[in-house]
Amino acid sequence: MAQKGIREVDAKQIIAKAVGQLSAGELAFDDRIVLVTPETDLAALPKQYPWLNTTKLVAKPDQLFGKRGVNNLLAVDKTFDEVKAWIGERMNKEVTIQQTTGKTTGVLTHFLIEPYVPHDVEYYLAFTSHGDTDTIHFSTQGGINVEEAWDSVVHIDVPVLAQSADVRVAKKLPKIPNPEMVARFIEVLYRVFVDYHFAYLEFNPFTFAGGKLVPLDCVAKLDDTAAYQCAEKWGAVEFPKAFGTTATKEEAYVKSLDEKTGASLKLTVLNPKGRVWLLVAGGGASVIYADTVVDLGYAKELANYGEYSGDPTTELTYEYTKTLLDLMTREPDPKGREKFLIIGGGIANFTDVAKTFTGIIQALEQYKDRLQKNKVKIYIRRGGPNYKEGLEKMRKVGERIGVPVEVYGPETHMTAVVSMALEGRK
Amino acid sequence: MAKTKLASYELFSRDTQAFVYGNQTRAVQRMLDFDYLCRKETPSVAAMITPERGGFEKFFWGTKEITIPKVMTIAEAVKRWPEADVMINFASQRSAFDSTMEALATDTIRTIAVIAEGIPERQTRIMAATAKQKSKWIIGPATVGGLKAGCFKLGNTAGTMDNIKEAKLYRPGSVGFVSVSGGLSNEAYNIVARATDGLYEGIAIGGDAFPCSTLLDHLLRYEQNPAIKMLVCLGELGGTAEVQIAEAVKGGRIKKPLVMWVTGTCAKVLPGEVQFGHAGARAGSAAETADAKNQALRDAGVVVPTSFNDYHEKIKQTYDGLVKKGVIKPAEETTPPNIPMDYAQAVAEGLVRKPTNFISTICDESGDVHNYAGIPIDEVIERKLGIGGVIGLLWFKKEIPPYAREFLEMVIQIIADHGAAVSGAHNTIVTARAGKDLISSLVSGILTIGPRFGGAVNGAAEHFLIGLRGQMAPRDFVDHMKAKNVNVQGIGHKLHTLENPDKRVELMKNFAKAHFTNTPLLDYALAVEQVTTKKKNNLILNVDGCIGVLLVDLLKELKFTDAEIDQMIKMDLFNALFVLGRSIGLMGHYFDQNRLEQGLYRHPLDDILYDVPDRPEVVG
Hints:
The complex is a heterodimer of chains A (426) and B (620). With 426 residues, chain A is of the alpha+beta class. Chain A folds into 2 domains: 3-234, D-amino Acid Aminotransferase, Chain A, domain 1, CATH 3.30.470.110; 249-423, Rossmann fold (3-Layer(aba) Sandwich). Chain A is built from 13 helices and 20 strands. In chain A, strands 1, 2, 9, 10, 11, 12, 13 and 14 form an 8-stranded mixed beta sheet that branches. A 4-stranded antiparallel beta sheet of chain A has the order 3-8-4-5, covered by helices on one side. A 4-stranded parallel beta sheet of chain A has the order 16-18-19-20, sandwiched between helices. In chain A, helix 1 (8-22) crosses helix 5. The radius of gyration of chain A is 27 Å and the shape is elongated. Chain B is α/β, with parallel strands linked by helices and 620 residues long. Helix content of chain B is 42%, strand content 11%. In chain B, helix 1 links the parallel strand 1 (18-21) and strand 2. Chains A and B meet through helix 8, strand 17 and helix 13 of A and helix 4, helix 5 and helix 6 of B.
């Protein structure tokens, strides 16, 4: 949604093309780069990219994570044969990487290969957005230690109402050789940032070789809501998932349901052995229910995060509920304790509450035996059109399938059912 | 209209006049219902701006119906209704930017609610900066809007009238509320209604990363408004808006009691980058997490509960404290008028019933798939029931066997056209050449069908049945008809004789002999033919006659009763087959004349006998 990271390969290719076009061929951005996936025939690549055999190369994973040098995932100044071997050893292997936000484990599936460019200078350049201004950040001390040299970074603010083509930066740059050319590059790259709807763009570092700008490392996010006006500018760009977030079978199934409809169905399994399962309507409400479980000190018992909203059909609600109930009732709690299913939600605007419960009820009936065996207790809280009928239906299904069900309407605070379940509080 | 000038911190009043951009009739009705519930005298919607079509649209005002004008451009709207200063923009993600910028450029529109979700962030930022430059307000994008209790409601805010009544939004209370999420605003209004004397104003700023007006913008507005005594806010993880609020409280820019909670505290236990529903809801740094923001607010002196669970309680305590201190004098209760239930809803809830004026027993288009006599159309196609099968379903209300379908289709093919000289085709051609359209030309041809042209199908069936049912010998039947001075319909042809038979008749006869178990009426007609051809050799059973008698035989095969068959004859069902088939040919003639660009036809004078007397006889 909105800001999405893209692969370094895609970013560099989009930008190389755009720089050529926007500067009418005056400026050049090195566009030599290849993406390698598990399907790529490495041996066949030099035919299409002859420079692979004539230059020394750099290879690294291209999966939306940085600090590849620190994590020992960077091959520099290698021949193509060496790169082939290097990638071959790592392709489809699981690795754990250290990032500023913590450790992440995932499988390596995408690598990039580009020319190794020996260089003297390492510049830092980034473009960011903040409400009514964009900021251009530039430093002559780029590289992995730029954060320590943050005082050296020049910040140039550009009002969002300015014309991107009129922005001039030469006078604001620190002392550097060839300042006009560097300024021209920054100005054109800023236009690319604006016109191509980048939400974030960073080259750390970049250098110059033979009059061309060579991006040694690039991080980019696009604003994917602009896709409808950028089809040609972006080409066949891919929006990969963050590294390490591989979906379980059930999560993938819910995602496939979500993609089939205008409604929204989301599921993230946190702890399949957790005793609190959330089946909550609405994006905002679902976060608050999960918050409340955590805030009351039961984070370890929280089994899932998820939501359904946008008026899904009975069939979709049934499939979604079934997926959740299946996960929930695979094994009873080892200590024989109760499990809680919280069917929550705020006060709906226009959604017919009784109708949305139909699919849930069908799934509950189907899982009757497993719900009983797993000592599941169901708490329901919902408001909105026809909620009384909906709650009554839920109460009755509880009686029918022999599973304890408690129902509450708008007169009860939205998350009160969480504390009732977890703390026996009324 | 007499309008009180709004204070800078007020966006709406009871006099507010708004434009609704987009053909959102339901949203407009909901706004009018809210107005009515607030006992306002004038609807708050001045006009709808619908680029596709101007005119008027009907709405309910209580139980009465009123009209709201529709104009096609913002320029026309602001010219005709200069007093309207609000626009609710329902334009899509793709066009909302242009219409919002146009509205910002007008002199009179001051506040714009942008409903669309997924407007590119750069466009949103340009809208926001432009609004700021012009001291205007944008609420949104990606919002349901907001409302001022007892005064004015933006679009679909607050859901159904039941919700609105439950949350007492028809009269102002003392609480200014602002949230990111619109989905939760109902929940919040409900909490406010239960914990306090009610809402004064509520705004949902929308979940984008760059909302055009922020939580703080609205809180500062509420701070200046003397009618608002306490503030309630619901924030979200991601961004720094809540941190700015903490600073505003610390810096003394917000002095009124503020109860606030930032949602998303669960993010710390979620893996990787789980994106919540809102584009802005993603913590990029430690300072943007919900925990950090809740703590910053707490440190600044804001009333922050320990979890959302205590939100209600904290609001109530704060409110009760203000009442105790005499800051708040609880708003008086009023009783809102009743809003009549929409007929459709009453039907859905089983509260009303009415007799129908029409009945259909041959098809039903009210379900998911249209059906013909109960068979869904996709099944009709899959089972290849064909035109013959469809006629069976829609004319006879029966699924008929393959040979019957084939026979009906054969008849249609045979009678599709009989050349340009016959009455029907002639009329169609003359009409087409007079420059008339397809329907006029077709109808002009069809109108000639009757007892003398084409109508013999029905007549033949009727006549031969008299003989057969009366068990008259063929000769007696011919004499009987002669005595009544009636020509037997379906007998006689210009050229064809027994020796030189009509191929089309032979085809039908052979088909019937091969596929029908019995052909009693055909057999009878052929016996009659033996009699008539004795008189004159071209008095044979012709095409119309053959179709007529074979249709009767077919219906008998299909087990229709005599009474049913008589009813079909009486209502021209047999001729219908002729009309259907011949329409193919008539339309062909119309297209032919048009392709040939034939001019107006004028009949030659020498082909008309003029026998007009010198003077008319004078009578009377």
